[in-house]
């Protein structure tokens, strides 16, 4: 489930949104009201229930072979996502939807370790290109994309290793993870 060229996606568990209006997110660490979306490369970051804590790592140009082997692991491709066991059932049963937008009103926001935007934002109301699409089996999406999905008792040891590595990384909804 990724956008076509010239599109961005917004993932939601609510299939009834007709117009997206810029707002200040409750978890925002930056000022400004935005409509948030993602491009092709960052779409896999959102193949999870909305509140699911996840830690993700991927190779970038400057990644060392040692970090690739230690964190992603042999035979696991170039990207790994980690979740806690307590979220497996929700991942199996969530009804997740993707809204497609014309990318024109969206601009890159932030920068990852490879110099790409971590998100796309619009500062004006936007209307989806059509009805939301059911995302489907989140495990199958990971498998088809060649992304290793790691299930851990607790995310923090993985997160601590990832954030000091030479890999690209991102954590979403970590406040919902089990305590250290």
TrEMBL record:
Q: What is this protein called?
A: Uncharacterized protein
- State the InterPro entries in the record: DUF6886
Q: Which organism is it from?
A: Lentzea flava
Superkingdom: Bacteria
């Amino acid at each position: 489930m990724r956008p076509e060229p010239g599109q961005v996606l917004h993932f939601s568990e609510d299939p009834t949104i007709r117009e997206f209006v810029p707002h200040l997110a409750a978890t925002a660490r930056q000022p400004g009201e935005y409509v948030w979306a993602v491009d092709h490369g960052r779409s896999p970051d959102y193949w999870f229930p909305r509140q699911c804590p996840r830690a993700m790592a991927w190779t970038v140009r400057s990644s060392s072979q040692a970090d690739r082997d230690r964190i992603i692991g042999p035979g696991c491709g170039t990207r790994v996502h980690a979740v806690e066991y307590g979220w497996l059932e929700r991942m199996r049963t969530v009804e997740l939807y993707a809204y497609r937008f014309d990318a024109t009103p969206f601009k890159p926001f932030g920068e990852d370790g490879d110099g790409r935007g971590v998100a796309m934002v619009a500062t004006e109301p936007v209307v989806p290109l059509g009805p939301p699409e059911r995302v489907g089996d989140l495990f199958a999406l990971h498998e088809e994309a060649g992304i290793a999905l790691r299930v851990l008792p607790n995310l923090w040891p993985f997160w601590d290793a990832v954030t000091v590595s030479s890999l690209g990384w991102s954590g979403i909804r970590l406040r919902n993870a089990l305590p250290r």
